[in-house]
Structure formats: C-alpha cells, structure tokens
Amino acid sequence: MSITADPPLAPASAGGPTPGRKQKPGPLWQCLQAAASLRLTVVLFVLSFILVFLGTLAQIDYGIGTVTKGYFRSWVVFIPFQVFVQFLQKFFDLHPSWRVPGSFPFPAGLTLGFLLTINLLAAHAIRFKLSWRRSGIIVLHAGLLLLLAAEFITYAWAVEGKMVIEEDQSSNVVFHSSGMELAIVDPSGKEDEVAVVPARLMRPGKTIRDERLPFDLKVEEWYANHRTRAAEEGEKNLADQGFGRTEIAVRTKEVSGVASDQRPDYPALYATLLDKVTGKEMGTWLFSSRWKPQEVAVGGKKHQVSLRFKETRRPFTLTLLKFSFDRYPLTNKAYNFSSLVRLQDPGLGIDEEILIRMNEPLRHRGETFFQADWITEETDEFGNKKGKEIGTVLQVVRNPGWTLPYISCVVVSLGMLAHFGIVLADFLRKRGA
Amino acid sequence: MNRLERWLPVAVTVVGLLYIGSSLRSAPAIQDPSTHGLKRVFWPREASSNPRDKMRLAEFGRLPVLDNGRIKPLDTYARNHLMAANRREEWLDDKEDAQPAVRWFLNLAAGGLANHAAEMVIEDEDVVEWLKLPQDPRRPRVVFRADEILRAAEDLKGKVEALEAKAAKLAGLERKVLDTVQDARKRAARSRALVKSLGKADDPERMRVFRIDFDQVLHLLKLERREGLRYSVEEISPRVGLILKRADEAQHRAEEKDPNKPVDTTDRRAMDLAEQLRFYIVMSRLEGLTMVPDEEFSPTGWKTLGQTLRMSGPKGKPAEHLIRIVAAYALGEADAFNEEVAAYGELVKANLPTEASKARQEAWFNHAAPFYRSAALYVLAFALAVLSWVAAPRALFRSATALMALVLVLHTFALIYRMWLTGRPPVVNLYGSAVFIGWGCTVTCLLLDWLIYRNGIATAVGALLGFGTMVIAQFLGGSGDTMAVLEAVLDTNFWLATHVTIVTLGYTATFVAGFLATAFLYRMLAGTVLAFFRNRGNPEWSSAFVFSMALAGVLAVPAVLAVGILWSLLYMATGDAPNANPWAYPLGAAVILFAVAFGIVVALRYFSPAPDEAPGAIPGSAQWMEPLELDVASSKSMSNVVYGVVCFAVLLSFIGTVLGGIWADQSWGRFWGWDPKENGAILVVIINALILHARWGGMIRERGLVMLALAGNMTTMWSWFGTNQLEIGLHSYGFSSALATMCRWFWVSQLALMALAALPLKYWKSYAARPEAKAAKGAPRPKAAAGDPRIAPA
After folding, report:
1. How far apart are CA B393 and CA B83, in angstroms?
2. Helix (H/G/I), strand (E/B), else coil: B193
3. Set of chain A residues whose Cβ sits within 8 Å of the Cβ of B423
4. How far apart are CA B15 and CA B7, in angstroms?
C-alpha cells in the first residue's frame, strides 16, 4: 500500500469548491487557494535551489558580503551569464579565457522567502485541521516559520562589529567593517569636531558638497578592497598630495567565503579636494583604510582625515589581560585562541575577569563577544601576520533573534520525527495487515 | 533449503573471515622480499644477501615521532610522505620487489647520515680564504662539504703537498689548513663508505619513487615516458633547477591572483613535483621530521636528527640510540640494528607509555588497512548479489548478505578503532566523511534488504556504495595524514559529533535514495525491453528508438559499472589513474565492446526474428532480464522505499544543517553566512523537501521520483566535493583537480540516467502490457507466490 495515501497538504479537492462550504467560493478564497497550492511550493523550491546554487558560484568572483546582499537579501538579482561559464571552467575544463557578457534577472532571497511564507501560511489557513495525524506537519512548519523569522530579524536588526584590544589596554570602541566612512577631524577645539562621509556616497566622478565639510570632495576612484605598494619612478600616479605621492593603491579581490580569520575588505579612496568658495582644486589624495590619519590644511586650519571603519562606543570597557595562542607542539597550528579580559561595567556594577575562547563567547548587554582574530607586531603587504601576537580581535554581534534558530531546530526536528513516525507506523501496519 | 543454499553462504563467510584474519595479523618482523609473498610462491628466488632484509624494519616503524603537532608512529609519517611522491605506500626496488615505506625513509636517513659525515664546519675565515672554498648560498656560511675541500685542495696541489712535507713543523694558519684537509679526507672516506655500504638497491638517489605522469613535466626534465612512471633523483637531478624555478614562479603568480597570468596544469604539476623534491632535499640534511625526543621526553623537546647531529655537547640517550640505529642500517649491520631498535623501544615505552602503545596500534592499523581490505569484500558481495538475479537466487542472495554483514563488522571495527586512535567522532575531515558515508550506506541497505526487499537489490546498492566510498577514501588518504590534528575552530567534539555526523548521514540517505532509484530505473528498462519482445507484431508496436534506448541502458549501466569497478580496483592496487595504467584502456574497451556486441545480438533478435519463432517469445539472450522485470507490487515497493529514505534524508540533512548554523553562531555569532559549504548543505535539504512536496502534491510518481532522486545524487556530490573546488571559504579544504573530474563524470552519468528515465510514462508500467496482466483485465498481479526466488517484494 502506498504511503502517499494521505497527502498531508494536498489540495482538498483540486480546483473545485472545498467540501463543507455550500456557497460559491469568493474571489478572495480563490486567491488564497492559489497561494496555498503545493504546485507553487514546488516551483518556489526549484527557484530557491537555482538561486542558492548560482549564489554559490557567484562567490568565485565576488565577496561573500556582496553576494549575500545581492542574491539573498534583495528582491531581484541580475545574475551574470559568466557564472555558468565559470562552472564549466571549474568542472568541465572550459578554457579560462572564456567570457560571456550580460546577465538575466532572477527573483532573489527576499522575494522567495516572502512567497514561501505566504504559501505556507495560506496552505495552513485553508487546510487547517487539528488532528493527531497532522500534528507533526503543523509543528514542523511552525518551526520553519520561526527560522525564516530569525533570518529576517538578522537581516533587519543584527549589527556586527569588531573590538580590537592590545594587551594591557582597554577599549569601549566597536568598529563596524560594513560601514566605512571618511572622517574629517578638527582637533583645534576643546573637543574634536568630527564630520564623516559614509562610504555609500563614494561613486567615482561624484562631487560631495556639504556645509559641515571644510572642503568639497570629488571622488576619483573607489576600491572596495586594496593593498598598497611603493610608487615606482615615473609611474602614473593619481595622487599628488599626502602619503599617496609615494604609495600606490592596487585594487584586490574582495574577501570571499567565510574566511577563517574573518579578514574584512579594506577600501581605498582617491579624491580631489576642492575649495568650498572658489572651487579651486587642492590636489588629489589617496586615503587608505590601512593608514593612520593624514593632515589636510584648509584655510589655516589643520584637519586629520582618514578612511576608517565606522565606530560606536559602549558604556563598559574590556581590558585585555592576556591573549593566548596555544599551538600544537612544534607547529604553527593553533588548537586554541583565548583572551582573558576584564569586564568593567559601572552601570551594572560589574567588574570581573572572563575568559573568551573559540566556541565560548561572552554575552553582555544583548551583545556577544567572540574570539575572532588577533593582531601581531606587523603585517606584510598581503596582510599576512608577522611577529609576536600583541592583542586580540573580538567579533561583536548584536542579534535580537539569535535564540530563534535553536528553538526552531528543536521544534522542526520534533515535528518531522512525529510526522515521519506516524507515516512509518501507518506503512508498517498496512504492510502487516 | 538445498545443500547449496545451506553451504555456499558458510563457505563465502569462511573465505571472507580468512581474508580478514590474514590481513589483521601483525606485520612480520622481518620481511624478506625474496621469500615473502604470493609472488615468490610461484616465482621462488634465492634468499637475499642484502643484510637489510634481515632487519626488523616494521619494529622501527612502530616508534613514535612528533610530526605536525601529534605523536604518530614513524610508519605513518613514512607512508604519508612516500604516498605524496609515489602515489603508493610501497615502492619497487631495483628487483621490482615491493618494499615498505619505512625502508624508503631509512634509505633517505642513511643518505642524510652520509651527507652529514661529509659536512664540515670551518669557522676560520682565513682557512676558507687559503683554500679558496666556494660558498653555497643554500647552506650556512661556515658549513662545507668534505669533497669540496678535497677538490679545492686538488686545485692547490703543489701548495698542499708543500704543507704536508713540513707537516711536523707547521703552526698557525698552515697547521689549521693541513688539519682541515686531513679531516676532510677522513670524512670523505667515511661518507663514501656509508654510501657504498648502502649499495645500489638502497641508494636514496636511485630509488624510483617520484611518480611523474604529466608529459609536459617529463619534457621539461628531458625524460622519456616509461611504464611504471616512477623516476629517481638521479634521473631528475640534471634539470632539477628548472622545475624548482618554474614552481617558484607559479607560486608567486598564484599568490598575486592576477587573472591575466593564470597558473596552468603544467605549473601545478611542477609545483607538486617541486614540493616532493624539496622534501627530498630537506631529508637529505636529516631535517623535516622531529623524531628525536630529549632526555626527558618533553612534549616540545623533540628535534630533528640533523639538529641533533650538529648539536655540540651531550645529545641524550634517545639521540644516541637513534643515531646508532640509522648508522647500523646504513652499514648493513642487521644484528646491531635489531638490538638498538629493541633497546630504544624499551626506553620509549618506559618514558612515553601511552604514546608508545598508541603509536604501535596506529602502525598496526596502517598495516592491517581494514578500510582498504573491505573494498575487495564489497566487490565480492556486489558480484554475489548481482549474480543472484541470474542464477541460484537464494544461495547467492544469502551469501551476499552474509558477506555484507561480515564486511560491516570489519568496517564498523575500523571506524571505532580510528575513533579510538584519534579520540574524535568519526568525521573530522573529508577522508573520515568518505569512510563514514560508506558505513552508513552499508547499514541502511542491509536493513532495507533484511526488512523489506529480501531480493539483493539493496545489498548490491550498499556494496557498490561501500566500494565507491572506499575508493574515494583511498584517494583522499593520498593527500596526507588522515588523522591530522584539527584547527582551533574545529576542536570541539560536541559539534563534530552532532552537526558533522548528522549532515553526513543526510548525505548518506540521499545517496542511498538516489542509487535505489537507479536500481528502480534499471528494472524499468529491463521490463521495457521485455515488453517490446512480448508485444512484437502487435499493433502497439512502438518506435525502434524507445527499444534501442532501453536496450542501450540495460547494457550500458552494467558495462559502465564494470569498467568503473575494474579501473577502481586497478587504482587501488597500483595507485595509478586509468590514463597512466597500461591495462586500463584495453580492459575498458573489451568490456564496452562486449556490451555493444551483446546489444547487437539482442537487437537483431528483435528486429529480424527467426521465422519459426513464436510471437511474444523472449530470446535466450534476453531471458536474463526476466527476474528484473517490475510488477505492480515491486514497483510500488521500490518507490515507497525511495520515498521513505528521502524522508530520512530531509530529516537528517535539515537537522544537520541547522546544527551547523548553531555551531557557527557559537563560534562567531553568525547563524547563517551563505558560505559555499553551507549553501551546499541547504541545497541537499531543498532537493529532498522538493521531492516530498512534489509527491504529496501528486506532481510526480515513479518516473518523477526517480529523476529527482538522481538530481539528489548530483546535489549531494556538489555539496560533498563540488563546493570545495571553488577554492573559497572556510570549508575549502581538499582541493584537487581529480575531484573535479570525479564530480564531472558522476554528474554526466546521472544526467544520462535521467535521460533514460525520461522514457514515456507507459514504460514505467510495462508490466500492464504483460499477457497475464491482460488476461486479468488490468487487475494488479498478485504478489509473487511464496518461495518464488525471483525478485519480488517479500
């Protein structure tokens, strides 16, 4: 006997009016029925499958941040045909020189997630019937909705940052690698006066004017990730001011995948500064996010200008007492990183020592502090660490929905176990009969 | 139950037990290739005169060394490194006898000792100046070789002879120079004696252990392609600089990641070879392996043999033992070697009791190689299960399942032993996933045959999957230590035991569903061919195309499987891919030709039947397909089982994937990062969920189920190996172009099967066209009569 005899969510009767309802179904009901169809579910699954697959291939060329935003956290994505070429290059020995221009639109993560939610809710709305046989299905789909909700909360409200603390130093500053800004600091007053230009305005060719800025800014080039090298004699150099006269920025690939050391992208900006009044050019500068601030003098006032990660401050401090990098004997391979920190939160009257290590984060004031990375005395031009470890890098995450996946995992598992258990029991009973 | 049915399973089990028993014995203390092994039973040879054949090499291999952060037996180190260069854990000496990896290591060490004997430290710049010694940038400034000094002295023959004439009266610089030259003579003589006593057979420069199968690299080295594809340092050394240079340049380009300067296959192969040559250079200075513990056996006190020899002052007991062991080996003093190995073994046991015993057990595990051995038994079980559909069904089916149960015991034992050795859950790396998936498939399939099918189909599928995963594991094992220590983020047994194990079981279930679907499809094809014969001449006579497709499928599937199994066996035995194995293509061609010829015979019987043939008769050449034919009940049962396994797949892959997210949340506060491996896992969930919903919605039946289950196979392969080929992300370990090739052919094969599955729906119900079915006016055929040995659900 077939186990499909009781299709859990199959349309009650295809197309026709639902039994038990005497009157002709209204247009709203018909819409609901269409939205609830299993056919739609399957189509959405197929589209999701394709999206996730192509969103993986896209990571050959683009950073994981770019892909996540474009493919999974948008409504529509334009997928380049080149991803198929790259698939063939990786697996079917197609020559690496092949390039295919163009792209095609495809429903992205938000669209599919939204439609799947509607589909699921509609299906349960029109076929809701509380019975033991369907209990597993209801529970497991409730768990799935929870998971979708968690992903949406993460998308909408989660904030990530990094805290860098050198040994024996304290910090309350969190850097946000997603938000880069050009900071113009006027240190002449009692307190620093800070004006910032967010990175999203940096489009080549655009001129940024704002009364809070001491100068106008014409964006020449914006590199999402870069490294710097010494300029060679006679080499063409965009910059004619500041550090950029001797250093050249080279565009590099965005960081792809979830890299084990969570290295962020380091952008660079070539910008021409213009006098606010006369509009006269004041030279072109290179601002690298790897550099310390550069001095720009405007009208007798000296400003500290730097391209830096957006920062926010916390009402508590962490002091790094000791960073440990435990290696396997005679190797450079770590079996553990840990930071012994002192957490001082006067507001909550907390002052204690805490050990943060891999897989054992600190949770405080709705934020979680993870051992993510460490800093060394120096780094080479590719950003590889050199020399002794001198401090720690903590990943700081605020995600109001972080517990939901845990609950969802349990709920869905129980639901599936219940449902498949019921189906299996049926099957075995019928076989036995 | 007749005699055959009773005794064949017993006989098969006994043979299997003997095979397992013979492999689980310890390695013989002394392995003399001239008297050892099956080969010598048929081609006996005089006892060897090489004293090294009387040394307890295996005992030496059981000694612990510290390598890559863990204490392991020297045997493991030697096998892994020899494997990297030679693609085999053994090597063939000048008499074409297989020699163990430990002997290869000892030959390198003996060569290193000879090099060291010739090495001299001259700190006095004036002496260097006087002798006009050339500087070698690869060595510290004060280190010179005795033969260089002698060559320099030869150039200054007159002046040196003058010094010798007034030797007694010399002082100052001249005294020092003469002492240096005389010391150089002594050292050079000792070094030469060491090399000479090693003999031709064990000369490290002459061991053919570098496997080069890439023509461009051979061309660079000006070497001829020859059978065996193994080359020695002696052959490579004239142009070794070229390879190292090319590899360095390629390495630089790879780091720059400039798309206009790609790294091609020749570059990659040159890089591979250069790595092996560099290892050889390092070993020839006795560096690379920290094998000498300090007197206290402290965890970080291990040194290389080279460091120990160059150290001034007392070296400590372990060092003295090890130096004497290598010296005795080099000089061919078998008794001294055996005594020293035993004495050092006692010392180690007293100081590192736990590590020493674990190292011994790991060395035994390497030697017994239970995963490798189980591969052969899987092939036998597969063959028995397949044969059971053609002849002596009950006897062969019982034998096949008995053998599978036996392999399962061996496989389980090996998994547990490995877990005990590593102190880890079963899956911590790709190798572990391969052996674990194989185990899971075997368990699932045995259960299915035992509980539901009882016809050997699941057993055959399980045996095939077991064998396939063992071949993959063998391949993955070639890339280094399979029990290597883990990076910090992975160092958590809780998540390894939950997330990784469950996700891997999800892969297992998806593969089982996909392969059972393939068996289902195969039975449909067989039924289709038979239906064409039965209805020959009837008006329902269909197109020749469908018949040809079905017939091609019926013959191509076993032919491709046979070629795959033969090539895999060749690979397991020799370490050579088919393109490097002279037997592979002829064998493959023979199988394919046979299948084609057979197909032509069957097709001829269909298209031009003999005039006296009864309508609807099945020719002898096609009768073997009859037991495979589907009927209503077996069709239902097949699809229900595939469906049931998919249910498990969706359950396991979902829970496993979410647990992975939770692990990530614990590790760096990001539940889901859209990383390629994460995406791969979610694709497996989606495809399985898709199958279930499509079936619930009535959108698919047998044909759709089979096609989607094949898509599930493709997806799982993508998730397992495909994502690693993208070279991005946290999970991108195990890069290898061979894996890309494997993915490619696997996908192509699954697409071909999907094309076959796309035959019109009515052929999925070809049993409906059977004469008896017609007689019953479409009523479903009753279940197979009790005791009917032909394939039918229980």
Report:
1. 42
2. helix
3. none
4. 12
Token duo for residue B439: 């185990």
Contact B653, B685 (CB under 8 A): yes
Q: DSSP letters of A354-407?
A: EEEETTB-EEETTEEEEEEEEEEEEE-TT--EEEEEEEEEEEEEE-TTTTHHHH
Which is nearest to A287 in space by CA: A310, A272, A269?
A269
Neighbours of B708 (CB within 10 A): 25
The candidate with the shortest Cα–Cα distance to A91, out of A65, A115, A120, A60, is A60
* Residue written as token pair 């970080």: B300
Burial of A259 (0-12, 13-18, 19+ CB in 10 A): middle
- The Cα B402–Cα B615 span in angstroms is 42
**Range in B57-61, B213-217, B326-330 the model is least confident about:** B213-217
Whether A87 and B752 have beta carbons less than 8 Å apart is answered as no
Residue A153 exposed, middle or buried by CB count within 10 Å (0-12, 13-18, 19+): middle
Average pLDDT over residues B580-588: 88
Q: Quote the pLDDT of residue B514.
A: 97
> How do residues B267-326 score in pLDDT, each as one tens digit?
888 888 998 999 998 998 899 899 999 999 998 889 999 999 988 888 889 999 999 999
Residues of B in contact with A42 (CB under 8 A): 690, 693-694, 697, 699
Q: Per the CB < 8 Å rule, is B672 touching A2? A: no
| Phi, psi (deg, nearest 5) at residue B471 | -65, -45
Sheet strands (E) in B77-162: 90-92, 98-100, 119-121, 143-145
Q: Give the β-pairing of A294-298 and A159-166.
A: unpaired
Number of H helices and E strands in chain B, helices first, is: 31, 10
Amino acid identity at B317: K
Closest CA to B686 of A112, A128, A8: A112
Dist CA A248 CA A239 (whole Å):
8
Pairing between β-strand A207-208 and β-strand B70-73 as defined by DSSP bridges: unpaired
Q: Which residue of A has its CA nearest to B744?
A: A91
DSSP H helices in B423-453: 430-448
| Tokens standing for residue B244 | 């190292």
> What is the C-alpha to C-alpha distance for residues B692 and A4, in angstroms, rounded to an integer?
10
**Closest to B573 in 3D by CA, of B372, B369, B365, B739:** B372
Cβ of residue B723 closer than 8 Å to a chain A Cβ = yes
Instruction: Indicate the DSSP class of residue B780.
Output: P
- Residue A369's closest CA among A338, A408, A390, A347? A338
Q: Is B261 on the interface with A (CB under 8 A)?
A: no
In contact, A359 and A366? CB cutoff 8 Å = no
pLDDT digits (tens, 9 = 90+) for B478-529: 888 888 888 777 777 788 889 999 999 999 999 999 999 999 999 999 999 9
ipTM above 0.90, yes or no: no
Contacts of A154 in chain B (CB under 8 A): 671-672
> For B306, left (φ over 0), alpha (ψ -120 to 50), or beta?
alpha
Contact B670 A335 (CB under 8 A): no
**Cα–Cα distance for residue pair A357/A341, rounded to 1 Å:** 11
Q: Report, in this order, helix, strand and coil percent for chain B, each rounded to 5.
A: 70, 5, 25
CB of A255 within 8 A of CB of A263? yes
Tell me if B521 sits within 8 A of B706, measured CB to CB: yes
Question: Mean pLDDT over residues B195-216, rounded?
Answer: 88
Q: Which residues of B touch A71 (CB under 8 A)?
A: 674
Report the C-alpha gap between B791 and B624 in whole angstroms: 12
Query: How many whole angstroms separate alpha carbon B527 and alpha carbon B455?
Result: 17
